[in-house]
Amino acid sequence: MIARIDLHTHSTASDGTLSPAELVHAAADEGLDVVAITDHDTTAGWQPALRALPRGLRLVRGAELSCRWSGEQPPVPLHLLAYLFDPDFPELAAELARVRIARAERGERIVALLRADGIDVSWTEILAAAGGGTVGRPHIAHALIQAGLVATTTEAFGPDWLGERYRLPKDDIDVFRAVRLVRAAGGVPVFAHPRATRRGRIVPDELIAELAAVGLAGLEADHEDHSPAERAHVRGLATELGLLVTGSSDFHGTHKTVRLGAFTTEPEAYERIVAASSGVTEVASG
Ligand code: AMP
Ligand code: FE
Ligand code: FE
Ligand code: ZN
């Protein structure tokens, strides 16, 4: 049987809706052999996921780092998946802590903009609902849904709401610094959904080549936000640059419609990630 490997999922440690323990159980129920927990800018889900790890499932500890490329103005936001890094590596841990604070400040400012337009959402309630996890626009989207202002998360991310009108940048990590820090922490950096034009601006292939030269290990090709042509383009670029290729669900529980294991990674690519890592080990229970 071919292993089913999903290397990009979110829990309540950031903007997913399943707790880390529920996430690993859902992964096992879905028939996955390997799952990575990759919450935004935090490793807070690692311990509870480990403690709840069902027999037969392998856990890859990771995170999705909020980064930016300053080659254009305003800078282009992008996401870097980081696998199996040392969570206590000081400079990386400090960057993640800084981004989490910046996210909370930005969320509060978004809410202030909404309230200035007479939209009755409460930052205190949004923070409480995030339950200590990394706060993001999906939490604000949830408040807009509960207030009956929009029907779905997709609508909340439309141009009239969090996608444009009430969109504010956050103070992300410079992507070159992020790649270097992940490597220095023994981790393996993989560019998440690099061609997802439907999310907004994307970076040029030249940047990806520059990142490969400083330690980027792979590209996420199979992702619901990539069209078939975009997936093929990413694969071609990875071959050209000698990078590994992943496929993942980017599961967020009910904050998104995608299912766990909707896209998966080839065992060879997964083995390359494990072989290149030295921060923490992957964990198999039982
Ligand atoms: P933030 O990190 O606060 O800027 O919010 C971005 C997060 O919102 C992403 O990680 C996704 O989880 C989610 N997201 C972005 N675009 C959409 C969308 N169109 N529909 C649903 N969720 C989205
Ligand atoms: Fe997210
Ligand atoms: Fe992402
Ligand atoms: Zn993600």
Descriptive key words:
alpha/beta, nine-stranded mixed β-sheet, 10 helices, binds adenosine monophosphate, binds zinc ion, Phosphatase, Pol/His_phosphatase_N, PHP_domain
Structure, briefly:
The chain has 286 residues and is α/β, with parallel strands linked by helices.
Q: What would you say this structure looks like, in words?
A:
It is a single chain. The protein is an alpha/beta fold. It contains 10 helices and 9 strands. It has helices at residues 20-29, 46-51, 90-116, 123-130, 137-146, 153-156, 175-184, 205-214, 228-241, 267-276; strands at residues 5-6, 34-40, 58-69, 76-83, 173-174, 188-191, 218-222, 244-247, 283-284. Strands 1, 2, 3, 4, 5, 6, 7, 8 and 9 form a 9-stranded mixed sheet that branches. Helix 1 (20-29) links the parallel strand 1 and strand 2. Helix 4 (123-130) packs across helix 5 (137-146). The longest helix has 27 residues, at 90-116. It is globular. The model has no long low-confidence stretch (mean pLDDT 97). The structure holds adenosine monophosphate (AMP), fe (iii) ion (2 copies) and zinc ion. The site of zinc ion has 4 residues, from loops. One fe (iii) ion binds at residues 10, 15, 40, 136, 252.
